[in-house]
Amino acid sequence: MRFADLIRRGALALFCFAGCSGTAFATDPAVLKAQLEALPGVVQVTQGSSSIADTLFFRIEFSQPVDHADPSGSSFNQRMTLLHRGESLPMVLVTEGYGTPQSLRQSELAYLLQANQLRVEHRFFVPSSPDPQDWSKLDIAQAAADHHAVTQSFKTIYSAKWVATGASKSG
């Protein structure tokens, strides 16, 4: 095993021991779906099937302003997927988001931590794009504000530790 792998696993273990005191418990899918639908910004929740034991999988659309400096202006729906293990477990926010697949894909962190996972599609990637597209609103500040809005909304259900991972623009 390489030294870098040992460091990575040690850091993950430290994160887990510091924030993973909860355990997953049986969640009624209909109750969780209703809780998700009630979150600020959530406009659609569809339950999908999960091949991972003791998990639930949802496709979610979240309303975002095109310009976070003008939240009363036009908006668009941002796609995301949720892999749910339990409300008391940590959340992995995956922000690589180039055309987020609508099928279940578990990140390495979610697997290693046995955590929940929220995978968010990046703004302006179809269909998470306003119409018409104002390319001046495709910048890192707007994307960061998107992720902040999602995180703040979902923390009302998932209040345990959060960790973010991603690639390219969001990595």
What does this molecule look like?
The chain is of the alpha/beta class. It is built from four helices and six strands. It has helices at 3-19, 29-37, 108-113, 140-154; strands spanning 42-48, 56-65, 75-84, 91-94, 116-120, 162-165. It has a six-stranded mixed β-sheet. The protein is globular. Mean pLDDT is 86; it is low at 16-25.
Shape call: globular
| Low confidence ranges | 16-25
Q: Overall mean pLDDT score?
A: 86
Total E-strand runs: 6
Biggest sheet: strand arrangement: 1-2-3-5-4-6
Cα Rg: 16 Å
Residue fraction in strands: 15-25%
Give the topology, please.
Elements (H helix, E strand, L loop, with lengths): L2 H17 L9 H9 L4 E7 L7 E10 L9 E10 L6 E4 L13 H6 L2 E5 L19 H15 L7 E4 L6
Parallel strand pairs: 4-5, 4-6
Antiparallel strand pairs: 1-2, 2-3, 3-5
Which characteristics define this entry?
171 residues; six-stranded mixed sheet; alpha/beta; single chain; 6 strands; 4 helices
Describe what is shown at a glance.
This protein has 171 residues and is α/β, with parallel strands linked by helices. It has four helices and six strands. The protein has helices spanning 3-19, 29-37, 108-113, 140-154; strands at residues 42-48, 56-65, 75-84, 91-94, 116-120, 162-165.
